Amino acid sequence: MTFPAPLIETRQLGRWRVHALQAGGQQLDGGAMFGVVPKPLWERRLRADERNRIPMGMRCLLVEHESGLVLVDTGAGNKETDKFYGIYGIENSPESAGMPDDPGPTSLEAAIRAAGFTPDDVKVVINTHLHFDHAGGNTLLTDGEVVPAFPNARYVVSRGEIEYARNANERTTASYFPHNYEPLVASGAMELVEGEPEVVPGIRLLHTPGHTPFHHSVLVESEGERLCFLADLIPTQWHLPLPWIMGYDVEPLVTLASKRRLLAQAVAEQWTLMFEHDAHTAWGRVEHDGKSYGLAAAEGG
Questions:
Q1: pLDDT tens digits for 38-63?
Q2: β-bridge partners, 60
Q3: What distance in Å separates the CA atoms of residue 255 and residue 167, rounded to the nearest whole number?
Q4: Taking 70 as the threshold, does the pLDDT of residue 1 lie above it?
């Protein structure tokens, strides 16, 4: 797999600079990623490899907020085995990002440094949910010890999500790894929230259930401009059509309702949407052509 490029993309949102940071590449089964959509349809958009896997990114959002840097999601981290990374096609080292001399242990740290900062500068980490490719970079394995990747940050996640993770069943347990979040809960670094709180002024959680019951997207608002980090509600631009829903979602009909509600608001209010798992397109405006939702041509890249 070719590492999704570029490592970092930056734009101005109102008074804040925001950065799309590529925390790595991964490859997942195309059938699983598109659920009931037949392969002849989804493969017109994304070509699968010989193992039926499609290229994906692990994109995180960094906001230069006046109260301190805010990071949304953290990629896969560095704590798993080579076998595990091979199964999911994960590439998340600075070497795979084309930065072999970077001192960071993951490509997320390389991207943060490319933006002009270090992990110590991050003040808030928001987890949209706790799956390993969204929260794996919360902590790092250093000299055999699991430590916070962002030592000066408070971590924020839904209370319902962590309770759901702690009570995983046979279908969901493979996505939740306690070393990504339990050390932070134990130390008091992780704040458990409910509803749709404003984490810092202008950055608010949106409850978008379906992928998990307590999944959140993140809405960033500044000077009349809005950017929505979709997380796994709409993982790539190719998942914008309402029925194109991942097989990984535990409640696909709930995902459908969440998508219908959010996309209608995004069109009405001209939000910019950010795609966490799209290997090539970081963000864009959405439009409805009378039949389906899709990326506006001017923003599609």
A1: 999 999 999 999 999 999 999 999 99
A2: 21
A3: 21
A4: no
Residues 235 and 56: their CA atoms lie apart, in Å, by: 9
**In which band, very low, low, confident or very high, does the pLDDT at 115 lie, cut at 50, 70 and 90?**
very high
- CB within 8 Å of 190: residues ≥ 6 apart: 154, 155, 156, 157, 162, 181, 184
Cα(130)–Cα(124) distance, integer angstroms = 16
Write out the two tokens for 279.
Answer: 């290997």
Alpha carbon 87 to its chain centroid, in Å, reads 19
Q: pLDDT of 139-193, one tens digit each? A: 999 888 999 999 999 999 999 999 999 999 999 999 999 999 999 999 999 999 9
Please say if the pLDDT value at position 4 is more than 80. no
Closest by CA position to 208, among listed 192, 193, 229, 225: 229
Q: Is there a contact between 230 and 276 (Cβ–Cβ < 8 Å)?
A: yes
pLDDT in tens, 246-267: 999 999 999 999 999 999 999 9
Which contacts (CB < 8 Å, 24+ apart) does range 221-224 have? 221/14, 222/13, 222/14, 222/15, 222/16, 223/14, 223/15, 224/14
Q: Bridge partners of 17?
A: 12
**119, two tokens:** 């992990």
Contact 52, 31 (CB under 8 A): yes
Q: How far apart are CA 234 and CA 132, in angstroms?
A: 17
Bridge partners of 38, per DSSP, are none
Short-list 114, 28, 131, CA closest to 74 = 131
Choice among 78-82, 218-222, 271-275 with the minimum mean pLDDT: 78-82
Find all residues with CB under 8 Å of 68, minimum gap 6, and list them. 121, 122, 123, 124
Tell me how far apart the alpha carbons of residues 279 and 5 are, in angstroms, rounded to a whole number.
Answer: 8
Domains of the chain plus CATH, in order, are: 8-299 (3.60.15.10)
Cβ neighbours around 49 below 10 Å, total:
12
